Amino acid sequence: MSHHDSQHNEILTPYAAQRRTMMKAAGGALTLGTVAGIFGATLPRGAYAKDSVAGGRCLTILYPKAADTRFDFDYYRDHHLKLIMDLFGNAIQRFELRKVISPEGAPPADFVASINIWVGDQQKFDEGGQQHGPKMIEDVPNFTNAQPVIQTDEIIGMAGSPSSATKIGQRCLAIAYPNSDGVKFDTNYYRDHHMPLIMKLYGADAIHRFELRRGVAAQDGSKAPYVGSINIYIAKQEVFDKAGTQHGQTLRDDVPNFSSVNPIALTTEIVGLAQT
């Protein structure tokens, strides 16, 4: 299967190194590329989380990592995140700050941070951005010198536990599918066929929560850098790894039915949360 780990978009650096990264699992090993290939995109019908909001909007923000990149997670969590929540209030439903980590034995990841902001009230959110944008921008140098890729996503579906059940310290496998001309990414097939298969084979002991999103637009209104993205919140890592070893080939065989994209896979850990 040719679905490996690429990275980012808009300056998208190929994620070839991390493609070869090994994730230790019971009875074998999984590359991040293998995992990304398995979870090619979307979610299942009939297994939606309690707080699903089909059609809701979410911001995806990725900070690339270079040799001189600085990102102060403590400052972001304790000051910048709180500033945003104070300014936007219930225009934001949920805010999640995640640190990108490298599994044991893996080379350093090409990204340093992954953030999702789920919108509670789109009109208030847009108004808040216009009103408070300059104040937030002024604070950016206090925590990073990196230029993020930002896009708006549409939530296609969710499975498993509600978002409120996720917690600090939990692992999340974040996968993004770079956008390009002629790309194939059939979210309907993924939702109706591939996702139910994943949930059946992995089960609730492996996957705590699963969210699929479709890329809508970049920050400037142009084509979204990523055609789709998913968050897989891991319940028990050892169960998750074992299921991947046992069932990975079955899932990889299904990937050509919905995707032609080489995805980017990031292992992340939740380090900051806010919810209204």
Mean pLDDT: 82
Q: How many domains comprise the coordinates?
A: 1
Task: Identify low-pLDDT runs.
Answer: 1-50
**Secondary-structure element order, N to C:** HEEHEHEEHEEHEEHE
The tally of helices reads 6
Looking at this protein, list some descriptive labels.
276 residues; alpha+beta; Alpha-Beta Plaits; 8-stranded antiparallel β-barrel; two-stranded antiparallel ribbon; 29% helix; disordered N terminus
Protein architecture, described:
29% of the residues lie in helices and 32% in strands. It is of the alpha+beta class. The chain has a single domain (16-275), classed as 2-Layer Sandwich (Alpha-Beta Plaits). Helix 3 crosses helix 4 (122-139). The longest helix has 18 residues, at 122-139. The relative contact order is 0.26. Mean pLDDT is 82; it is low at 1-50.
Short description:
The protein has a single domain (about 15-275), classed as Alpha-Beta Plaits, CATH 3.30.70. By secondary structure, it is of the alpha+beta class.
Per-chain topology:
Blueprint (H helix, E strand, L loop, with lengths): L15 H4 L2 E4 L2 E4 H7 L18 E8 L8 H16 L3 E10 L9 E9 L2 H18 L9 E12 L10 E8 L8 H16 L4 E12 L7 E9 L2 H18 L9 E12 L1
Antiparallel strand pairs: 1-2, 3-5, 3-6, 4-5, 4-10, 6-8, 7-9, 7-10, 8-9
